[in-house]
Amino acid sequence: MHIVRGALVALLRLEPDIEVVSEVASGDEILAAARSSRTQVAIIDIDLPGKDGLTAATEIHEQLPEVRTLILTSLGRPGTLRRALAAKVNGFLLKDAPAEKLANAVRGVAAGRRMVDGELALAAWDTVDCPLTPREIDVLRLTAEGRDTLEVAAKAFLSTGTVRNYLTTIVAKLNARNRVDAIRIAKESGWI
């Protein structure tokens, strides 16, 4: 993670019109860093320790609307793009994109344009929307973290019976064989 961040910072510092004003290692640090550095564009990895990148992007959108967000991810799935757009991000780019494409995306986002990887946008166009409700996604995400029914219930402020009912519904909606299969389907689709 640190190596990738360092490489991105080094690449961006080579661009004469882009200044890197801050870098952080955790999603929990993003909002404070954006606030204190007065950044124009926050480049955020979707998969971070602590708070995930989409949650951080949503917080920036709500609390610092003048700051634009560009999500970088290795998860090039249509469902992930849909989640990012729902979080009101301004750009979405795969981590393995060429350096020139990254720099151009930063420039475009800074100029007020939406910058989305073209192939991924076309793939998202043809995909099915997530059939799960936000609450079902929360329950499945907590389950995917390895929590048992009791822990999911406590974390989500639900009864254990309600958690079991949600998981049964999720398995049925996704035509999954079991919870593990439901988690796999949801991850592959980019819904969690």
Description:
- Helices cover 54% and strands 9% of the residues.
- The protein has ten helices and four strands.
- It has helices at 2-13, 30-37, 53-63, 78-86, 99-110, 118-125, 134-144, 149-156, 160-173, 179-189, and strands spanning 41-45, 68-73, 91-94, 115-116.
- Strand 1, helix 3 (53-63) and strand 2 form a beta-alpha-beta unit.
- Helix 4 packs across helix 6 and helix 7 (134-144) packs across helix 10 (179-189).
- It is elongated and about 55 Å long.
- The mean pLDDT is 87.
Strand order of the largest sheet: 1-2-3-4
Assign the structural class, choosing from mainly alpha, mainly beta, alpha/beta, alpha+beta, or little secondary structure.
alpha/beta
Instruction: Please tally the β strands and state the result.
Output: 4
Instruction: Report Rg.
Output: 18 Å
The portion of residues assigned to helices is: 40-55%
H/E topology pattern: HHEHEHEHEHHHHH
Span between N and C termini?
20 Å
Shape: elongated
* Mean pLDDT reading: 87
Strand content: 5-15%
Give a brief outline of the structure.
The chain is of the alpha/beta class. It is 54% helix and 9% strand.
Q: Helix and strand layout, with pairings?
A:
Layout: H1 2-13, H2 30-37, E1 41-45, H3 53-63, E2 68-73, H4 78-86, E3 91-94, H5 99-110, E4 115-116, H6 118-125, H7 134-144, H8 149-156, H9 160-173, H10 179-189
Parallel strand pairs: 1-2, 2-3, 3-4
Helix pairs in contact: 4-6, 7-8, 7-10, 8-9
